[in-house]
Design goal:
With 445 residues, the chain is α+β, with helices and mostly antiparallel strands. The chain contains 4 helices and 28 strands. Helices cover 21% and strands 38% of the residues.
Length: 445
């Protein structure tokens, strides 16, 4: 009775087996296709002379690795930022404005010195001329008084090198290093160099207690022992009469460098001191006419001094103003004084603070200006701009406190002026300052 059902059972089994076989074949076909796509593409690309593609994941990892290795340029914006000079490939350590106001020199650890045109500061493009420092790099740079040469301090060579600037027919310059560098004399690291505006001498100062006065030909004229435990800053005055230094002691010492009527070097003698701080002095600066000086100390204060005194008759400088700057008590600070001594700029870390010296008030603060600590700070010779360096860029700021000081001072002079021609001159000066402030937007009250 059950035999007639056997064909039906066998047919059902064959049908199920056929379906299973078809499913297995489909899966196998898909796996083979995937393997062919995986292995066949590189073979075809190789046959066509093309390099095999890498996976998208490895590409992303490589891009991320490249991004991490490449240093990022620090971004900074501010309403008073006039320009950012960004041609250097390394960190900038020093800068210097030429005495004619036309150029700004910068040096960096990319083995180059760049010369920028100040007239391009307000333009969209900032071109520069490059001088290469062979087999070394410069840490300090200073223009010669005639703007036809500049000197640098070599990081590895530990000496001065002179570069001459020769103007080409196309308006550019050719930079040529002199055949021989200055002899090595310092035993400690250099903190600053300077050239007298008269062109009579060069100064170099090291971090011990040594300041050397050189002739332009590389001969040491005099050695100064500052007796300050260590030097933190030294500079030549704009009038070229003085060399000053500060350090571990709570004062600034000033010497006079004397020359005869025929231009021959005579001697270096102590002139005067700035006394009044209660702790080590970080830095100091001269005004353009050398009649004012400013200093900042670890005691948390800055001071403005009247140095237009008869020091040969033992007259001491007068203290004009003292202001608070608490950052100086914990952080090494840099200082710049505007040419007219109306504005004081202080840098701590990567921040810049601007004070008016008439009342001692802080008027502007620029935070996180650079990606690293600020290495140099300077006003241009007109006082319109303040420049700072700290990473691979120089940032140029409008000096609004300077414009406000001109407005305030000129308004007072106008009230007392009795001569009509004087009044017209003062009115023109006032109008220029007011228009400059207006072009920079709303001002602080």
């Amino acid at each position: 009775m059950e035999l007639p059902q056997m064909p039906e059972m066998m047919g059902l089994s064959l049908l199920l087996g056929l379906l299973a076989l078809m499913a297995t074949a489909a899966v196998a076909r898909g796996w083979l296709r995937a393997e062919e796509e995986k292995c066949g593409r590189p073979a075809r690309q190789k046959a066509n002379g093309l390099p095999p593609d890498k996976s998208s994941g490895s590409k992303k990892q490589k891009q991320q690795r490249i991004r991490k290795e490449k240093p990022q340029q620090h971004n900074f914006t501010h309403r008073l930022l006039a320009a950012a000079l960004k041609s250097h490939g390394g960190n900038i350590s020093c800068m210097d404005f030429s005495s004619n106001g036309k150029y700004l020199a910068t040096c960096a650890d990319d083995r180059t010195v760049r010369i920028w045109s100040t007239k391009d500061f307000l333009q969209r493009e900032h071109r520069s001329m490059r001088a290469s420092v062979e087999l070394d790099h410069a840490t300090l740079v200073r223009f010669s008084p005639d703007c036809r040469a500049f000197i640098v301090w070599l990081a590895n060579g530990d000496t001065l090198r002179v570069f001459k600037m020769t103007k080409r027919e196309d308006g550019g310059y050719t930079f040529t290093a002199t055949p021989e560098d200055f002899p090595k004399k310092h035993k400690a690291s250099i903190i600053n160099i300077g050239i007298a505006n008269t062109g009579k001498f060069i100064m170099t100062a090291s971090s011990d207690t040594t300041i050397l006065i050189w002739s332009l030909k590389g001969q040491v004229l005099s050695t100064i022992n500052t007796n300050q435990m260590n030097n933190t800053h030294a500079a030549v005055s704009p009038c070229s009469r003085f060399v000053a230094s500060c350090g571990f002691t709570p004062d600034v010492k000033v010497w006079e460098v004397r020359f005869g009527k025929k231009g021959d070097f005579q001697e270096v003698v102590r002139a005067f001191e700035l006394k009044g701080h209660s702790a080590a002095v970080h830095s100091f600066a001269f005004s353009k006419d050398s009649r004012r000086m400013a200093s900042v100390s670890k005691d948390g204060t800055w001071k403005l001094w009247d140095t237009d005194v008869e020091y040969k008759k033992q007259q001491d400088p007068y203290l004009l103003r003292t202001g608070r700057f608490e950052e100086a008590s914990t952080t090494l600070c840099r200082l710049a004084l505007s040419p007219d001594a109306q504005v004081l700029a202080l840098a701590s870390g990567s921040n810049i603070h601007l004070f008016n010296t008439r009342r001692g008030e802080k008027e502007e603060c620029f935070e996180q200006v650079h990606g690293e600590a600020i290495t140099d700070l300077s006003f241009d010779i007109t006082g319109q701009f303040l420049a700072s360096s700290g990473d691979r860029a120089v940032r140029i700021f409008h000096n609004t406190p300077g414009h406000r000081a001109v407005v305030e001072e000129t308004q007072g002079l106008l009230k007392r002026a009795s001569n009509e021609s004087t009044r017209q001159m003062l009115q023109q000066r006032l109008t220029r300052a007011q228009e400059a402030l207006k072009s920079l937007g709303p001002q602080k009250k």
